[in-house]
Specification:
The complex is a heterodimer of chains A (291) and B (438).
Chain A lengths: L19 H30 L3 H4 L15 E6 L8 H10 L11 E7 L5 E4 L24 E7 L8 H5 L5 E3 L5 E3 L9 H5 L6 E2 L14 E2 L5 H4 L6 H5 L5 E5 L6 H8 L2 E2 L11 E4 L8
Parallel strand pairs in A: 1-11
Antiparallel strand pairs in A: 1-9, 2-3, 2-4, 5-6, 7-8, 10-11
Chain B lengths: L1 E4 L2 E4 L2 H14 L2 H23 L18 H24 L10 H22 L3 H10 L6 H24 L3 H27 L11 H27 L5 H36 L3 H12 L3 H21 L5 H29 L20 H24 L16 H7 L20
Helix pairs in contact in B: 2-13, 3-4, 3-7, 3-8, 3-12, 4-6, 4-13, 6-7, 7-8, 8-9, 8-12, 9-10, 9-11, 9-12, 10-11, 10-12, 11-12
Classes of the chains: A alpha+beta (291), B mainly alpha (438).
């Protein structure tokens, strides 16, 4: 084996034999170049997704807030909901959520139960503009005797959440007070949490003028307006609802609205058989319609 | 400084390399130039799609919150499982030393590395922040996530494969033998974990369950074997290195493996359809219905069942033509069938809505159409594998070597033949001072 820089062909193979010195030189150039270029590339592509909303976004972390002292719960009263869609509008405005119906943190469904028991479900543009009587899920005449009710939907903040279990980089996590959040600086945008969610509560943020965390391509979902509840306020959708169909409160407080309802009235959760233990309970939900 | 490459001694400066490549291109036979030109066009299409998809949140893909995993995920799954299948098929030669599978040795390793690198490339384009994936998986491990384990296993698998290729060409037999064994183990573990990525999701009844990893491994075996069948037909057809042994051993061996794989996968697909339609889970029934009589029915029945399973079985069993041509045709149909199978699998799990998700009416089912960007990337990926393998076939020494016999396997059959049969009289052991029995 020679020690100079000349290369000799190894008779055992058709590939060139390289000396250790040449290999080390190559590595010293190639490895930092590769690492540097990939980091540069990542930084450049993240620039294209940043927007002005990052500057005006309220930091959800409040130093004086003791998360362990609270246990947040949510109750949706389907017997009160009138399908006005104000909650959807309030959420989109409060959290800078994209305005289209597909990418939304909360939405309202219309469930139409026909006399034969079949259920038709629709949610035009997430219900943001309400529900026109003429445009019906059954796309035609409404059968006499059809009952209609509205079901607001949002992230269930499951105690046994599939989304936190499947995230490959631990970007989605559960706070001590029971809210599931996404770390937008860690999320890789794989979409595993989106497909894992049984309730369809998640989406990947599209690039555009409205990005909740100031970053596109990451997972997003309802956070119970964490930046508001940590400052003693209610979520925007709860505050705006004209009929009190959405109720939010601390389950550690026996006198809170949600504690009272859960204690005194029959509620149900969605897809209980999956064992996700949602923190969002429903009043008056006759049956789960899977459209 | 010089190096030997593309059949000549090259000075390692850009000008000399470019001139040498141009000279070599001019010296290529015309059919090969046409082939390279065709692949270059496909690669350019793939590159255009890849460039378009680089922007987080604006990748130009056709996925929606309802159908978040689309053609790029299908492409990743297809190439990843093909990698595993190549190792599973060739392990009969590389690990167990069975003579008739020895010609598969070198070619499978190169194809496996190319397929896995391509799979990683496709998934990197699908992810919005791929660099974070590598750093996040290393510094924020998430053992509860099957996707994290999949990343670990496929990353380890790539290391074993690269070791296999390096030791094969640089003559390190013992390292090579060990790398082959480890790669073959990973060839089972990695696609099983890829199946678990889908199989753990209780939210998706069509994917959920223990048969998903099983079907993934079986499909892997099928697609890897089929790719070898296609490659060895090319070796025989163009009389490339080792074509005599390819014709005598490799092609009949691939035929046997394909038949076994086809029968296993046919049984698993049959089970999937029957249990899906008869299930008490309405979500599973709806998803299976979408597969067999809904929007996925045409690709499922035509390309997956008839063309991807039934036709190859018939072609391999019925001597309608010479065996190499039959194996090549069956392999091509099987490869297409496995790709369509993964496509219908990924979509069937999402088109049946779990609920009227995200405000969009998806009754009776959601919809998805691959965007031109996604189609371009998959085309580019196939062209990349074809181009790199053609270069490997032309410029690397793919002759069989003894590198796979470094560790002698016990000759089980020979030992068994020397022992007396159980029903034969065996002499009682002779005590000291005794006369032996006659």
């Amino acid at each position: 084996m020679t020690t100079d820089d000349s290369v000799h062909t190894d008779p055992r193979s058709s590939l060139p034999a390289i000396s250790r010195r040449q290999l080390l030189k190559l590595g010293a150039v190639a490895v930092p170049s590769l690492a540097g270029s990939t980091l540069l590339f990542d930084w450049m592509t993240s620039l294209t997704s940043a927007d002005d909303s990052a500057a005006t976004r309220v930091d959800p972390i409040v130093s004086s807030y003791d998360a362990a002292a609270h246990r947040w719960g949510f109750v949706v009263d389907t017997t009160s909901c009138i399908g006005c869609g104000q909650c959807v509008v309030a959420c989109k405005e409060e959290n800078n959520v994209p305005l289209d119906g597909e990418h939304t943190r909360t939405w309202v469904e219309r469930h139409s139960v026909a006399p034969d028991g079949s259920v038709a479900v629709d949610a035009p543009e997430a219900g943001v503009g309400g529900f026109a009587a003429s445009a019906h899920a059954a796309s035609g005449a409404v059968q006499p005797g059809t009952r209609t009710y509205f079901v607001p939907r949002l992230c269930m903040q499951c105690e046994n959440s599939p989304c936190t279990a499947v995230c490959p980089v631990g970007a989605t996590y559960r706070t001590p007070d029971g809210v599931v959040l996404v770390d937008e600086q860690r999320c890789i945008g794989c979409g595993f949490c989106v497909v894992a969610c049984p309730y369809g509560a998640r989406y990947l943020v599209p690039a555009g003028p409205r990005t909740p965390a100031g970053v596109a391509g990451v997972a997003d979902k309802c956070t119970f307006c964490y930046h508001r509840i940590t400052r003693g306020r209610q979520p925007a959708c709860v505050e705006i609802c004209p009929v009190g169909a959405r109720k939010f409160g601390d389950l550690n407080d026996p006198s809170s609205a949600v504690s009272t309802i859960l204690r005194e009235r029959p509620t149900r959760v969605m897809k209980a058989s999956l064992g996700t233990s949602p923190r969002v309970h429903y009043l008056g939900l006759e049956r789960e319609a899977e459209a | 400084m010089t190096a030997r490459a593309i059949g000549r001694q090259l000075r390692l400066d850009p000008g000399a390399v470019m001139r040498a490549v141009a000279d070599e291109a001019r010296a290529l036979p015309r059919p090969l130039r046409v082939w390279f030109g065709f692949l270059a066009v496909l690669l350019a299409i793939g590159a255009a799609g890849a460039l378009r998809s680089l922007f987080p949140g604006d990748k130009g893909v056709g996925t929606t919150p309802t159908v978040e995993w689309g053609l790029l995920i299908v492409g990743y799954v297809f190439f990843a499982i093909t990698t595993s299948g190549l190792c599973l098929a060739s392990s009969l030669g590389t690990v167990f030393g069975i003579e008739r599978f020895r010609p598969l040795e070198k070619r499978h390793a190169i194809l496996a590395v190319l397929c896995l690198v391509t799979a990683f490339g496709i998934i990197a384009l699908d992810l919005h922040y791929p660099v974070r994936m590598v750093l996040g998986a290393a510094f924020n491990p998430s053992p509860s996530s099957p996707m994290w384990w999949m990343g670990v296993f496929y990353g380890t698998y790539l290391c074993f494969l690269l070791t296999e290729v390096w030791s094969m060409f640089f003559g390190h037999p013992r390292i090579h033998q060990a790398a082959c064994v480890l790669s073959s183990c990973m060839a089972v573990i990695a696609p099983s974990t890829l199946g678990a990525v889908f199989g753990v999701l209780a939210a998706r009844p069509f994917w959920h369950g223990p048969f998903t990893p099983l079907l993934m491994v079986a499909s892997a075996f099928l697609s890897g074997t089929a790719l070898l069948g296609l490659v060895f037909w090319v070796v025989r057809r163009f009389e490339l290195t080792g074509f005599v042994r390819a014709a005598e051993l490799a092609i009949p061996a691939v035929r046997q493996l394909l038949l076994v794989g086809l029968l296993v996968v046919t049984a698993l697909v049959g089970r999937e359809v029957v249990t899906g339609l008869l299930s008490g889970d309405p979500g599973l029934v709806r998803a299976t219905d979408i597969l067999v009589s809904g929007p996925l029915a045409l690709p499922f029945w035509l390309l997956r069942v008839i063309s991807g399973l039934a036709a190859p079985i018939l072609i391999l069993l019925v001597p309608i033509a010479a065996m190499p041509a039959r194996v090549a045709l069956a392999s091509s149909l099987v490869l297409l069938g496995v790709f369509v199978d993964r496509f219908t699998f990924v979509l069937a799990g999402q088109l049946a809505p779990t609920t009227a998700v995200s405000g969009v009416v998806s009754a009776p089912h959601a919809s998805y159409l691959p965007s031109p960007v996604e189609i371009a990337i998959v085309i580019g990926a196939v062209a990349f594998v074809a181009l790199m393998y053609t270069l490997a076939e032309r410029y690397l020494d793919l002759a069989e070597s003894d590198v796979h016999t470094a560790i002698a396997f016990p000759d089980i059959v020979g030992i068994a033949r020397r022992l007396p049969a159980p029903w034969q009289h065996r002499p009682r052991p002779v005590e000291p001072g005794e006369e032996p029995e006659r």
